[in-house]
Amino acid sequence: MRSSNKLITSVLIMILTLVLISFPVFSEEFFGGNIDWTQFSGQEIRLIMCEHWYTNGLKPIVSEFENKTGIKVIFDIYPEEAFYTKVRVELAGAQPTMDGFMIGSLDMGSYTAANWLEPLNPFFENKNLVDDEWYDFQDLYPSAIDGGTHQGKLLVLPVGAEAEVMAYRKDILEEKGLSVPNTYEELYDAAKKIKTDDMAGYVSRGLRGLSIVWEWSGFLLSYGGRYFDENGNPFFNSPEGIAATDIYTKLLMETGPSGVVNYGWQEVIASAQQGKAGILIEASGALPPLEGDESVVKGKIGYAQIPAGPNQERIPNYWFWNLAMNPYSEKKDATFLFLTWATSKPVFLKIARDSGVSGARLSVWSDSEFFEKQNKEWIDTCIESMSFVKADLIPYLNAKYPEIADSISVELQNVIIGAKSSKEALDESAKQVADLLKK
Prior knowledge:
The chain is of the alpha/beta class. It has 19 helices and ten strands.
């Protein structure tokens, strides 16, 4: 009899196991609201994503969405520069092969002008697709929503909001008897004293394209320079722009690492993680790996606002990463369901707790679990830095900004390698940009 009971128990366990295997498993914490999550079951959507902390955080939990909804999600992931090219090529082809994609501030103007961004307002008005109370649209960063709205049309949903922050080695500054730099001249003086054969005094981006221009823009604005004058003419070659370029390139040439013209943000962070950088200025969202277990400088990093320019202005550059929908997609409803899920409170909270980056929702900052895991100085600095941003001073919404940035980047590199002075380089780029704007 006992043997019979054991046999029955074993059979029941096997049956239960098979039943559990045959049904998709998902965590209800990622879902909510009064909508039918399974209404597009059987569809397949494809998104092109950039290699990024958000993508890294989303990948492991996409299966939760697939199991709950029955929608198959395919991610094509590319490094940043290749990513820009891939998305642009697919959109230019006007094909439905891509349903959604990430988009950074760089392409907002050109994509908007080309009508490559599907307006999302009608989807939000369809209450079969989104529960307003569950999604809580007002919890998204207002500045990011403003940056993704054109002529009343919401074109993107934000996934990341970042601004420039200065990070420095507390132990190195203490060892050298240095204070945290408050001005760019103080930054240069400190970087010169920190520089050794094994450590760069200052590390920043030197890579052609948006990479170098993104960091340089914070110097330009803080020095009182601007991209354009009140008539829309190139103005970055003003005396203020030249002074900003002098200090930016001098820092890299005299205190930076060798090969800095090949440094994007990944190389900057890797250098700092390996203990080879005394001071750096980077996007706030790129800095959490410095406190990771693989970082040799964990616990040794201090955080502060970027230095002040000659008139005590601090105007950091900023960046928004977003999710958008391909206007040529044939599966727009299913794609929208994914976009709202991927930018929802529970998903952002999961990614924030795992990655250490807040994303684009205000509520993350009040989450005790997220807060307790982070460097409080970093949190305070990030929040304050975003308050210093003057979004209208960066011409991201200019349809030709990618070409403008590329022209400036080439000339900045010419200064770094010693081929031109700052004035010669900026004058040349200003001429190119003026011609570009006439086309």
